[in-house]
Amino acid sequence: MQKTAPAHFEAASTLAVVVSSNEPLLFLSDDLKVIAASASFCRAFDIDPRTVCGQRLSEIGNGEWAMPKLASLLTATASGSATIEAYEIDFQRPNQKTRHLVVNARTLDDGDIDHIRLLLAITDVTDMRAEARLKDDLVRDNAILLQEVQHRVANSLQIIASVLMQSARRVQSEEARGHLHNAHHRVMSIAALQRQLSTSNGGKVELHTYFTQLCQSLGASMIADPDRLSIQVTVDDSAVDADVSVRLGLIVTELVINALKHAFPDERPGTIIIDYRSSSDDWTLSVTDNGIGMPAGSEAPKAGLGTGIVEALVKTLNGEIQLSDTGPGTAVTISHRESAGSRDISTAA
To answer: Where is the Histidine kinase domain (predicted)?
Structure first.
């Protein structure tokens, strides 16, 4: 039969472990007298190791360990009515900066059943917390700077759009005027996005607000008679990452511009509807008008820059594009289906 080691042997082993520990440790009796202290504890808190043993915790050093709440918790731990796990304290010493400590304590069975022993471990997290605060400050400052940059970019784009419009009024060539108008509309859509980004939180952009502002900007610059033509936005509460919102916004811009230019000739009245719906990782964007519909045969217009832009953007979103005749009118639908094996880059609804 294996014999139980004598209590004094167990106690001696515990003392050896405590003293040689690389972590600040205190071995305490149930009345909070120091039985042993690790050399690392003495170094960390500038205490002469020859003066520690036999003293109460409150008497160590210059009395800076006299913390009533800590003492109360240690006494409760010794009685078995409480435990100390990751208890945080501010350690203050005269003429020194406050240090932030995390302490843990538990009872030890060192073979002496007549006396309770406590092992108190101390971790100095002062530098760690300072680094965390610095990181938080940098993140906050960067967010403020980013918003300011986005605001300035939006203002600059507005100036560029105004210059393009002034140039369009001066040129004699109808073709050149058309190109300048198209450039103006595209710049305005990006300016609207920048304004929305400057007010968005957490890197997400709410699509209903963004599409509404975008279409208001497009309508103001392209619709001379709001009673004849209108743009409606029916979007759920989806919010997407900023880079995704840029691509979706450019797609909407190109499709709305195309509808305003081709779907309502001869002062024909009508409506363009932008709709977006998402479910989990799947989403659908559609731009529908009730105009003249799709020309057939030789009357069909050639694919232009706008079509190429839309197709390229849809590809980056791992989406599929479908063009359909709604009789009257035309619908362009872009869909992304995660179940079809596409890589998700889209949205958090």
So the answer is: 247-340
Give the domain-ending residue among 124, 146, 167.
124
CB 333 within 8 Å of CB 284: yes
E strand or H helix at 31: none
CA–CA dist 130, 302 (Å, integer) = 62
pLDDT for the residue numbered 168: 78
Whether residue 308 is found in the same domain as residue 219:
yes
Same domain as 347, residue 244: yes
Apex 231 CA angle, 277 and 315, nearest 5:
45
The SS3 of residue 312 is helix
Q: Sign of the C-alpha dihedral, residues 40, 44, 49, 55?
A: negative
Residue 54 to residue 35: CA distance in whole angstroms = 6
Lowest mean pLDDT among 70-84, 147-161, 178-192: 147-161
Determine the structural domain holding residue 93 and report its residue range.
Answer: 7-124
Q: Which residue type sits at 73?
A: L
Q: How many whole angstroms separate alpha carbon 29 and alpha carbon 116?
A: 6
N-to-C CA span, the chain: 67
Q: Do both 183 and 64 map to the same domain?
A: no
Instruction: Give domain status of residue 233, yes or no.
Output: yes
User: Is the overall model pTM greater than 0.70, yes or no?
Assistant: no
Nearest-angstrom CA–CA distance, 244 and 233: 18
